[in-house]
Write a structure and sequence with these properties.
This protein is of the alpha/beta class. The protein contains 16 helices and 19 strands. Strands 4-3-5-6-7-8 form a six-stranded mixed sheet, with helices on both faces. Strands 10-11-12-14 form a four-stranded antiparallel sheet, with no helix packed on it. It has a three-stranded mixed sheet with strand order 17-18-19. Helix 11 links the parallel strand 5 and strand 6. Helix 1 packs antiparallel against helix 5 and helix 13 packs antiparallel against helix 14. The radius of gyration is 24 Å and the shape is globular.
Length: about 475
Amino acid sequence: MVTAAWDQRDVSEQARVRDRVLAAWLPMVMSAAPRWTQTADRLGMAPGQARDREALRRFRPVTELEMLAGDDTGADAVVAPTEQQVKAHAPVPTLRRLAATIGGEGPVDKREVLLRDYRPLQLQRAGIDGRFWVASSRTDLDRMHRAGARTAAVLGLTEDDVVVSAVRQAPDLAHLATVHLALGASLTAAHPRTTGGYDEVVAAVRSLRPSVLVVDVDEVETLGRALVDAGAVPPGLRRVVVLGPPPDDTTRERMAGAFAATGGAVGILAAWGPAESRLLWAECAPGSGLHTYPDLELLEVVDPLTAEPVGREDEGELVLTSLGWHGTALVRFRTGVRVEGVTVEPCPSCGRTLPRLAGNLEPAAWQLPYTATDVGGVVDLRGIAAVLSHTPGVVDWRVELVRGERGDHLRVEVAGDVAEDVYDLQDRLAQVCGMVPEVELGVPTEDVAAGVARVGGIFADLR
């Protein structure tokens, strides 16, 4: 039995809650999300028998490019059960709730009620060029409310606060999670921005005189100057929530200075989550680390080259499992985010026992954006490293993204005695990196070693 509050559970109690949610969630995902059904079939795993971390570890961590390989939208990762699958694999609390609904609504289509919990209602853009869509059901929206209330609590927001968001309205995590934060915490909030400028935000700030502003981390100082120039900085402003990786102390001081016209101290706190997530993690104090929710998402840290797990507090790539969510199911999803580990020590600032992402974090750490003649995208260096490090004869390599007026192109120079046909290697690289590269074999090792990226140092060189 869970006895402690959501933010005061010790490590063992967090593990019990996580394992209970996983045991109820994984069988449905394996039976009703085509991507994971196919994976389970290849692994010889029956949905009803796979309910623990050991079963989860058999799923290989996957990149976004792999998730998009099916239909280019990620739709095959959405849990879309049949009536029989709901009856066979839905958690007992869900079945009880559905039974009560059927009993309370009189003559209804029982199948309609059974499937209602899983129908996608909200779509969120994420990933490479916004092509990866994350679906959320009615149940997921309730969980987003709950997560929003938690984020607001960590940030120290109360029902007395008035919030104005300078985040542009869009079907993405930044806007949607900000909306759910306000709704979940019962905050008075406005989300006025529909254009590239700040006129709508300035007008809202003038009339509502908010105590809290929410803004993208890259726009904090620009927004501050716009409010100061318009004479619209509210005197009661006490907190600016920046959406993005936590800034360093120097940047934080500069951000606070942009709102100095308030005459008082404006606190700068960060909230952030991977674009494919459905919630924001937040700081309780500057530099405290981002507080996460182990009953809503399962986090791992892996080696970005091998995808093998590293120590909890070691640097690596963040891997996300969307624990308990009904719409899009992310199973060991490689976020491409470099983190300096996850600490489970109680927060020294607030005392919460939640796991925290402490230290620096860097989204898209191993992904280089490119622009071709008519499209844009991302070159995934993890994929290049994975292929070349397992290609017989490869001694070293160099990767260069060549910029040009007519578009960028990718050049890969390989040192060593490689027997594989250059076009076959080119095809394999294109499948995993997101762009068809120009490949040159037999390059002298000394030339490659002076390059942009090489085996053993590819990630350090390109951070």
